[in-house]
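Researcher: Next sequence.
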Amino acid sequence: MTTQTTNINLDSPSLVLDSIFTWKGAGRKLQQSNPNYWDSKCRLRIYRAFSIPNIIICSDLDEESTGTSITNSVENVATLIWEKYAQEFFSRNMSYVFIEHYPYHNRKDKKPESFSLVQFNWNGQQFCQPRWSPLTPNIVLALIQQPLVKN
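Model: Next structure:
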């Protein structure tokens, strides 16, 4: 088995937003307006899907310090994204698929690229109780309507 040393192409005609998403601390509501909390950030991509829920991919950045990791603040980040973009991207489809992405980085640990589907419960105010399931790159590519990787 060979280790992947490049990242798959996440561009797609269904991509409607590609930006850096920033939150304070671990993403809790009270932390967002407090300047004493550190900035955390990730790359946010939103894909518009017409027959399934829209897809969100939050990717770790290839930087030394990006604040709280996506994994450690995932339910708060998912809630903040929902609140910020619900009207613009989710109004006709009130759910979305949330994928956590750790790309291959050229650092000393050389961990391979990984994707996880994160499922949540909704408590009426925010997402909670995250559960992770690994995804293959080809599943992610199929979801975002991108050609599959040849093995």
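Model: The first helix runs from residue 70 to 89. Strands lie at 15-24, 39-47, 54-59, 96-102, 114-122, 127-135.
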